[in-house]
User: Fold this.
Amino acid sequence: MLALFEKSVAKSPEGLKSPHENGGKEGKGDLLEHFSSVNSAVVSINLGPLASMAYTTQKQNPLLPRLFAVVDDIFCLFQGHIENIAILKQQYGLNKTANEVIIVIEAYRTLRDRGPYPADQVVRDLNGKFAFILFDSSAKATFIAADADGSVPFFWGTDSEGHLVLADDVEIIKKGCGKSFAPFPKGCFFTTSKGLQSFEHPLNELKPLVRVDSQGQVCGSNYKVDAESKKDTGMPRVGSAANWSAHY
Assistant:
C-alpha cells in the first residue's frame, strides 16, 4: 500500500529528513506510476492536490491481508487483522459483516464526532497485527497507526516536494524519499492535528534517534518514547456536544 499527503494535511516530522538530501527524486505522480509499474492489479485513488492512495491485493501475506474501504468521504487502507473484532463490532454498533477496515473507520468517526475516549485508547483497543492509513477528505485530516509490535512492514518518509509518504514496501519508500525515511514507530499513531504520539505511553513525548545506514550516512530518524519527558495533560473544558476532533 502507498499513500502521499500534502504538507497542509500531514506535516512530516523534521527528524524524517536526512541531512544528506532533500528526499528522493521521484515526484508524487512519478511514484504512483512506479508503484503501478512494479505491482499488478493496482487500485489508485486520487484525492486532488491533498492526497493520493494506492494498493494491490497481489503478492500479499495471507495472514496480513490488505483491505480498503470508503465511508462518507473517509478513505482507509488497512493491512493485518484484529483479534477482538467481535467485541469491537458490538462496541461500535456494527453488523456482523463489518471487517477490520470498517471498524477503523467507525472508530475514527466516533472519535471525531463524539470523542468519548482519547485517541490513544481507541487505537490501544485494537488487539492484533496491523497498520492503517486513514484520510478524512471532508475534514482534511489523517489518522495513521501501527501496532505495538510493528508486526506489519510499514515505513514513512519525506519526498523532495515535502509530501509525507507511507508504504508497506521499503523499496517504494526509498524510491520516493531517498534516505529521508524510517520505519513507522511501532505502538504509535499520527494525526493531522497532533502529529506523532505513542498510544502505549500517551503521557510521554517521542524523541528522534539518529539512524545510520550501512554506508555510514544519516537517514530519517527512528522515533522512540522519551521516558524522562511528560506531556502537559491539561484538558480543555468543553461541552459534551462539542467537536473533540481538535483534541485527538
Residues 235-248 have pLDDT under 50 and may be disordered. The chain has one domain: 2-231.
